[in-house]
Amino acid sequence: MPVALWSAWRPGGLFDRIATAMAFVWLAIPGFVLGLVLIYLAAVQWRVLPATGWTSLTDDPAGNLRHLVLPALTMGLTEAAIFTRTLRGQLMDTLDQTYINAARGRGLGTARLLLRRALRPSSLPLVTLIGIGFGMALGGSVLVEPLFAVPGMGSLAATAINGRDFPVIQAIVIVTAVGVVVATLAVDLLYRRIDPRIAHDHR
After folding, report:
1. Are 4 and 113 in contact (CB under 8 A)?
2. Among the four residues 123, 150, 180, 201, which has the most C-beta atoms within 10 Å?
């Protein structure tokens, strides 16, 4: 979100060009390749994070976070690139609106202008992508969790598929479908909270 805000406020600047280039890089790299690159850099070369394995949060909170960093980055960087580009485009459209120019004319500061006037109406497509990204994350975990030896639904799904354990596969599909439905419902509720006009139009 901060990257999108600054890029939209100074489009075409050095920061915007760097952010755009990095977003295209993350979008072009498949998740499992990105995971291997992160393992090589963080675990093999720099030795700052564990390559694989998992530690329970109740046993060792710090160890749990250290094991979580690489899988989270692997699954999150691509989604973050999509979210950043989408929000930047929406913010640029919003910043061209008449009421934004009027707020500028009244001397409203940059931070208040972006956060209070531009961000809220620009965030509806982002909320939609977050809801869709929930289902994509569940699918991506099938590759990422086995790569990092993380116990989770993705690893369970991979094991069940390899072992042709159809009841487990069916259960995972049902849980995933319920999760997507809940995420979609949450997106709809957030729509109404972000833009009250939506709730008014449905009455």
Report:
1. no
2. 123
Q: Are 74 and 186 in contact (CB under 8 A)?
A: no
Helix (H, G, I), strand (E, B) or coil at 61: helix
User: Which pTM value belongs to this model?
Assistant: 0.82
Per-residue model confidence as pLDDT tens digits over 85-103: 999 999 999 999 998 989 8
| Token pair listed for 104 | 């500028």
Residue 62 backbone dihedrals phi, psi, to 5 degrees:
-65, -40
The structural domain count of the chain equals 1
CA distance 162 to 156: 10
Whole-angstrom Cα distance, residue 151 to residue 135?
Answer: 18
* Helices 14-28, 61-95: inter-axial angle, 10-degree rounding: 120
What are 170-200's pLDDT values in tens digits?
999 998 888 888 888 888 888 878 776 665 5
The CATH number linked to 113 is 1.10.3720.10
What sign does the dihedral 65-70-76-80 (CA atoms) show? positive
> What phi and psi, each to the nearest 5 degrees, are found at residue 51?
-75, -45
Coarse DSSP helix, strand, coil percentages of the chain, rounded to the nearest 5 percent = 80, 0, 20
**Residues of the domain holding 38:** 2-201
Cα separation values, 83 from 17, 19, 90, Å? 16, 12, 11
3-class DSSP string for 82-115: HHHHHHHHHHHHHHCCHHHHHHHHCCCCHHHHHH
- Residue 22 near residue 81 (C-beta atoms within 8 A): yes
Could you tell me the two tokens for 192?
């109404």
